[in-house]
């Protein structure tokens, strides 16, 4: 049985964009990334006490993990937590593809254990979940979670782990003002009732909820996020304006308020950090107070946008 409970941070740091090549317009995000600016991000995050880094083998097919591993070399391993994922769709054909993918992640990240290891999506819960058990027993994985699973899939994974004396210790799903399927499907309640941390990803909808982008200032041309979100920017204006006006009263910006909303809902946001000022936003988000009226107004404006931001990899919850 896992002896130490998972230490859940207020905010986790996302590195999906770190898998892009660094060329503008490339990959999902089209962000310009340099080793020096990412080192500065890590330095600032470390100083502010943000310690959980979330990545995955499939983010740039190893590029995100390799970059993160290099940047964290300067810190003691006990000073940070690593979260990475087994992705069934990228599984090899060996006898134990989960153990193999883990070994590759460990090598890229330059470590001998992962604090939180996820099954990335529910390709076949009965097939893949049992493979986590020997990894927990070996100590190479300290805690396990499931990502993009619906409630019945979470329950099945929990039963399988439970037979060996373990349990699903965290859930990670897409959750934002614009995409509340985990709440509507009862997954947030399930987590709350069992004391399971819920990690929310795509809280800022790949930048579409930051207020930075508009029909006059589109998301980076050629990126996957531009394809997904540029067409909805006109519908998002009333919501991002409201986020900005709530923020202004508290010395914060629109993305900080969108992050604070997710925290107010009892979840842990995973926020993609590619620039040092993103860390400043996370510090501000932690000190924002949202009233019940603020929350209700934001949710009503979000519903009124009538957009779907479900990712192509996501099934209905």
From TrEMBL:
SUPFAM superfamilies: NAD(P)-linked oxidoreductase. The keyword Oxidoreductase applies. Keywords: Oxidoreductase. It holds the Pfam family Aldo_ket_red. It comes from the Bacteria. InterPro entries: AKR, AKR_Detox_Biosynth, NAD(P)_OxRdtase_dom_sf, NADP_OxRdtase_dom. Residues 11-302 form the NADP-dependent oxidoreductase domain. This is Aryl-alcohol dehydrogenase-like predicted oxidoreductase. It comes from Rhizobium miluonense. The lineage of its organism: Bacteria, Pseudomonadati, Pseudomonadota, Alphaproteobacteria, Hyphomicrobiales.
